[in-house]
Amino acid sequence: MGLLSNRRVLIGAIFMIVGTILLLPAVLPNIGEFFTYALLPGAALLTYGTWLVGTSESGPAV
Predict the structure, then answer these.
(1) Is 42 within a domain?
(2) What parts of the sequence cross the membrane (predicted)?
(3) Average pLDDT over residues 30-51
(4) Using CA atoms, how far apart are residues 62 and 49, in angstroms rounded to an integer?
């Protein structure tokens, strides 16, 4: 079974990409209030996506 054929890995990868996109505007100067509020969901999606990918296989999580 390939890595990308696992559903948990695909969902985790999508969450990590969306979370990273939500975090990117925070590095720009003079960001708006909306992007400040987008930091929390972005961090949560990035964390949950990483957890999904890390625990997708049997055995100890890496």
Answers:
(1) yes
(2) 9-28, 34-54
(3) 89
(4) 14
